[in-house]
Amino acid sequence: MRRGMLLATFFFVLGILVALVQLWFTPWDAAFFLKLELTFAALFLIVLVVNFVIKEHRENEVTKSGENLDD
Predict the structure, then answer these.
(1) How far apart are CA 43 and CA 41, in angstroms?
(2) What's the chain look like in SS3?
(3) For the chain, is the Cβ count within 10 Å smaller at the N or the C terminus?
(4) C-alpha to C-alpha distance for 47 and 32, rounded to whole angstroms
(5) Across the chain, which distance is largest between two alpha carbons, in Å?
(6) Residue % of the chain over a pLDDT of 90
(7) How far is CA 63 from CA 18, 28, 36, 53, in A?
(8) Alpha-carbon gap, residue 42 to 70, rounded angstroms
(9) How far is residue 2's CA from residue 12's CA, in Å, rounded to a whole number?
(10) pTM here?
(11) What is the C-alpha to C-alpha distance for residues 25 and 36, in angstroms, rounded to an integer?
């Protein structure tokens, strides 16, 4: 799970850095910049959702097996 959160954080920070570079230096035209930001946002969301689904699945398996249940 840590890898997933690190990857999501990476895409979030990368999107912010690209936005700041675009704000100050304007190296890309508007259409390409929008595509770049939407790509980073989509990757960020995909990593977050997959990470959440994996976490929930693992917790569900632990609950089904009866481990960590208080009597």
Answers:
(1) 6
(2) CHHHHHHHHHHHHHHHHHHHHHHHHCCCCHHHHHHHHHHHHHHHHHHHHHHHHHHHHHHHHHHHHCCCCCC
(3) C
(4) 23
(5) 62
(6) 79
(7) 42, 50, 41, 15
(8) 40
(9) 15
(10) 0.86
(11) 16
